[in-house]
Amino acid sequence: MLLQREKEAKDETIRLKNLYKKVAEFDFLNWDLIDGFAYSNIAVLQPTESGNDFNLSQMEWGFIPDTWFGEPLDTLKKVENWRRGYKDDKGKYIPGITTLNAMGEEMLLPHKIYRSSALERRCLVLSTGFFE
Question: Rounded to whole angstroms, how far apart are CA atoms 119 and 121?
């Protein structure tokens, strides 16, 4: 039993060292500050489908739901309109929606915008610090 635990610990150490090498390829660690409202790219760890490992990728900061009032947010223009607001066909201004923060106490309640993502599509945002 002890040998199995030692092997698992060694395997985990190797995975973490490889992950550290991957992280070093990104230059996010030498940025002084990332403003969430700039929606810039950041390094993110996503679990693989098997759940036994992680993929490291760059993603745009901020939450984007699958749909907005039933319409898919499937183009950059739609996402920009959703975030910043836009004028509809009649010239009426439709304000943007900010989803940079979620209240942990409410995130999993039924009909919350973050619910399905929190349950099914979690990730780890890599950062050297956080300020709100």
Answer: 6
